[in-house]
Amino acid sequence: MNIFLVFLILGVIFFCYKKICSKKPKNLKLAKFKNKLQSKQTNIERIFLREEEKIFSNPNINIYIGIYDNEANINRKSNIHRARLSKFKKSKLNGEMIFQDDEQRIYKINNGKKVYL
To answer: What does the pLDDT look like over 63-96, one tens digit per residue?
Structure first.
């Protein structure tokens, strides 16, 4: 009888322990949103998105593509440059203002003359 009571008490303790430890959030989508909102990586991504939006909206901001940039950064910067060219018809890349005419040709102005690229 004593062994039965010991096993019964251990079973109840084990059941209560499992119930407390395996408590899942009631709304998984809400929990994911909360974790994503509090994540440091998400905050860093938001800062980069704001910075890219600021660069995209102003064609006079210089986009510097260096020789040590990795391929993903080069692609991102060149896409921003192309988008600014198509939207504003001008974009500053590596310190030079580059323009696009009505015939979609790309040029820069050097000593007051158009130099087509």
So the answer is: 888 888 899 888 888 888 888 888 899 999 888 8
Q: How far apart are CA 104 and CA 56, in angstroms?
A: 19
Q: Match 């009571």 to its residue by tokens.
A: 5
3-34 as b/e, with b when 16 or more CB fall inside 10 Å?
eeeeeeeeeeeeeeeeeeeeeeeeeeeeeeee
Cα atoms in the Cβ-side hemisphere of radius 13 Å centred on 1: 0
Instruction: Tell me the pLDDT tens digit for each residue of 13-71.
Output: 877 777 766 666 667 787 777 777 777 777 777 777 787 888 888 888 888 888 888 99
Cβ 82 vs Cβ 106: under 8 Å: no
